[in-house]
UniProtKB/TrEMBL annotation:
Keyword Isomerase: no
UniProt organism field: Rubellimicrobium aerolatum
Name assigned to this protein: Oligosaccharide flippase family protein
Transmembrane helix in keyword set: yes
One Pfam match: Polysacc_synt_3
């Protein structure tokens, strides 16, 4: 089990690292304001993808008939319809979005981005289906190839354009190669079927995910919209780069947790008897604790390496990011804690838990808008985000207890240790004169305490290490 988890995590991490390198290279090689314009392209893309997704990839894993060829073909057919609708919507909204973000010169680029959802929708679902059997290699390869192609295209694109257009065409190249890769790794022939019954089933399954995706758009991009609209492209570039550096590992870890636990939790949820219930409980604890651990690891790594990395990789033009990077890591860590709860609920066929937890984040966005209008800067926007993500995590736990009768008592010690870990860098950096090494040492010690409270994930890791050392 540990080997499988490591394979999933390393594959997702490698793809994310390639994308991070792409963004860092482009940010270093083009003006800061142009990177802000490039960030508006990502925002526009997210608008369409988030509000038109029905969780079809998760459905093929969770459904009992997910291995049926006709069911897969019907999901692929529905995906194509969804992609065509998304592309048309993005083309129509290109002008208003560019005008709202005060970058009318990028309107044509936003229209060209309408090709991305269409290309993504033409992908094969077979690598998702194979996850049901514990086969993750095709999924990893389908993620790595487009990321590598996009990275390799950066230098010639920047040399040719020298501005935000380099990011535009890097994204298009990634989508083309990504679509082709899913067909290369597939075992089954690609078929499309339009089945009303399955589409209806997908809509019923996916509408809570659709609602959650709307909320996720606001979670991931609401702050960027506030910053870009009210503070300008340079501030948007600083904020977006901080989000990239902290959000990229968060998404990798969250995706890996879901990839690993969802098939196993779904199988246990469909089982009967005390043995299946015990296995579901053990896996649930593992999903929660994996989220706590990975969020804590993100905070520790950022406290130790975040500032030096920003100075080395991005130079003086991103110096304003250094005092903000720890806070942004705490915000993203609080976000990933909800992954365990949402994965557990999804395995039970309840997709709405994640949306209800993320609704708290939606409420925080008007507060951020008002704060910026009142003269506050990026730091206040991040503080509001930290508070909202923390409350959203608490809501996700309460939903598990109320909907499924899950006991929260086993989570008490890990939650308290994790809260201490997240609070330390925020509090200590506010005290004048506290040395950097003191902050780093305190966070590392708190991380050790956190790990000591999480027996479910600690045991298999130690057992795997013992087997390695015994060889």
């Amino acid at each position: 089990m540990f080997r499988t988890a490591f394979l999933i995590l390393s594959g997702n991490a490698a793809a994310s690292l390639l994308m991070l390198l792409r963004n860092l290279l482009i940010a270093r090689m083009i003006p800061v304001a142009d990177f802000g314009v490039a960030a508006t392209l990502a925002i526009a893309m997210s608008i369409v993808e988030m509000v038109s997704a029905f969780g079809l990839q998760q459905q093929i894993i969770q459904a009992k008939n997910g291995d049926d060829p006709r069911f897969q073909a019907a999901l692929q057919g529905f995906q194509v319809v969804r992609g065509l609708f998304s592309g048309l919507l993005l083309a129509v909204l290109a002008g208003p979005i560019a005008d709202f973000m005060n970058v009318p010169e990028a309107t044509w680029g936003h229209r060209l981005m309408a090709l991305v959802p269409v290309l993504n929708a033409l992908g094969h679902f077979d690598h998702y289906r194979l996850n049901r059997k514990g086969i993750f290699g095709p999924m990893i390869l389908a993620s790595l190839l487009p990321a590598l192609a996009s990275l390799l295209a950066v230098w010639p694109l920047v040399a040719w354009f020298g501005d935000w257009r380099a990011m535009l065409f890097a994204i298009l190249i990634q989508s083309v190669v990504g679509m082709i890769s899913t067909h290369i790794v597939a075992e089954r022939p690609y078929r499309l079927v339009l089945d009303r019954a399955i589409i209806r089933e997908s809509v019923i399954f996916g509408w809570p995910l659709l609602l959650n995706n709307v909320l996720l758009f606001l979670v991931f991009n609401g702050d960027r919209i506030v910053v870009g609209r009210l503070l300008g492209m340079e501030s948007l570039a600083i904020f977006s780069m901080g989000m990239t550096l902290t959000l990229a590992p968060t998404l990798v870890m969250g995706k890996s947790i879901q990839n690993f636990f969802l098939p196993r939790l779904s199988e246990a949820a469909h089982g009967e008897g005390p043995k299946a219930r015990r296995r579901f409980f053990r896996l649930s604890q593992g999903a929660h604790q994996s989220g706590f651990f990975t969020g804590g690891l993100l905070v520790v790594a950022t406290v130790l390496l975040g500032g030096p990395f920003v100075r080395l990789a991005l130079g003086a033009q991103y110096a304003a990011l250094v005092p903000l990077i720890d806070m942004m890591a705490v915000m993203q860590a609080a976000r990933i804690f909800k992954t365990g709860s949402s994965t557990i609920a999804l395995a039970r066929g309840k997709a709405g838990n994640a949306a209800m937890a993320n609704l708290v984040r939606l409420v925080s966005l008007p507060l951020a808008w008002l704060a910026v209008q009142q003269g506050f800067g990026l730091e206040m926007v991040i503080w509001i985000g930290i508070l909202a993500e923390s409350v959203g995590f608490a809501v996700s736990l309460l939903l598990l207890r109320s909907r499924f009768g899950a006991s929260l008592r086993p989570l008490a010690a890990p939650v308290l240790a994790t809260a201490l870990l997240l609070a330390l860098p925020l509090v200590l950096r506010e005290w004048p004169g506290v040395p950097e090494w003191t902050v780093a040492l305190a966070v590392v010690l708190a991380f050790g305490v956190q790990l000591a409270t999480m027996r479910t994930i600690r045991a298999p890791v130690l057992a795997a290490l013992a087997r390695k050392l015994g060889r």
